[in-house]
Specification:
Layout: H1 5-38, E1 46-50, E2 65-73, E3 76-85, E4 88-97, E5 99-107, E6 110-119, E7 122-129, E8 134-142, E9 148-157, E10 160-170
Antiparallel strand pairs: 1-2, 1-10, 2-3, 3-4, 5-6, 6-7, 7-8, 8-9, 9-10
């Protein structure tokens, strides 16, 4: 069988086009996979009840109960915390963004400066009370099934330091 130069050129060109299409498809697939992976940050939205039996409160007293109500639409994070303890019920609201920008909130008349940002799939937060007297550093981790929220919290201030592990169950 004899092939003309034109037939060989056409076959090579068609094979080249096919290979280029395959390369474009593979590259597109990997780009889409990377975008999907980058966008797969945990969503903490929902109502979360503190599991006092599974939590460790460090040097601080355990509350009788605690509930977090969270609205999380990346990068906006809004939380209402309702805690019942020996001194009664305390409710406060915090709003911030997860992009590392400083946000200001008030707990009662105490001003908090908060910075939240992602470290992989862990949401890290740092809250400082006005005057820098107390600093709270959080690491928020959502379980793979999305039903357990674990917050590791480090308190530091003029009265010392303590670490807590707060385990919450989604309601």
């Amino acid at each position: 069988m004899c092939y003309t130069f034109g037939q060989i050129e056409m076959a090579v060109t068609q094979e080249g086009l096919l290979m280029r299409k395959i390369h474009e498809f593979v590259a597109s697939f990997f780009v889409l996979a990377l975008v999907a992976f980058a966008q797969s940050k945990p969503d903490f939205s929902g109502t979360w009840k503190l599991d006092t039996a599974r939590s460790n409160f460090g040097a601080l007293p355990a509350p009788q109960s605690s509930t977090l109500k969270i609205e999380h639409k990346e990068p906006t994070f809004k939380m209402v915390s309702i805690t019942v303890g020996d001194s009664g019920e305390r409710t406060y609201e915090l709003s911030f963004t997860t992009d590392g920008k400083e946000c200001t909130n008030f707990v009662g008349n105490i001003e908090l400066k908060s910075v939240a940002k992602w470290d992989g799939n862990v949401l890290t937060m740092e809250h400082k009370a006005a005057g820098g007297e107390v600093t709270v550093k959080d690491q928020w981790v959502l379980s793979e099934d999305g039903k357990t929220l674990t917050v590791t919290r480090q308190w530091s201030g003029s009265q010392g330091e303590t670490t807590q592990t707060l385990v919450h169950q989604k309601q």
